[in-house]
Amino acid sequence: MTRDEAWKLLTEYNKEEFHLEHAQIVEQTMMYFAEKLGYGDEKEFWGIVGLLHDLDFEMYPEQHCIKGQEIMREAGVDERIIHATASHGYAITVDIKPEHEMEKVLYAVDELTGLIGAVVLMRPSKSVQDLELKSVKKKYKSKGFAAGCSREVIEHGAQMLGWTLDELIIRTIDAMRTFRY
Fold first, then answer.
1. What value does the mean pLDDT of the chain take?
2. Domain encompassing residue 109
3. Helix, strand, coil percent values for the chain (each to nearest 5)
4. Beta bridge partners of 94
């Protein structure tokens, strides 16, 4: 599947700018991690997984990570993409455990990119370029801030990767600094 094919499929099921922007942020973050973790030859694949991870969320939020599998199978999408995208709903909506390092990264950064994005919106600069760990940690500790971003999922993702929470946050900030966000 090419990036253009993935985008066409995504925009067939997603119209809201927020969801499309989130998909692209996760796509770029996944591509960054592919390079940094030694999977540069799979960078586009990691990006497509990031782009499609919430394919079903806008139209089928109550069937998230379930309906997406059906949609992708009907579209002839590679089973590896289907498994990877579904695995980010592990222990939430599905029992498909993240196995590959790429799936663990997706699980960890999906919620975290949303939280970092919310922190950035509160900053005078509205930029991730001058964002520091301590600013994210301060907002992270406030359960009412970006309440839809599960701290439990973020922490579980860090554990799956064998990283500290701080390491995951720093690496994700670094990833988000590399693209227009």
1. 96
2. 3-177
3. 65, 0, 35
4. 90
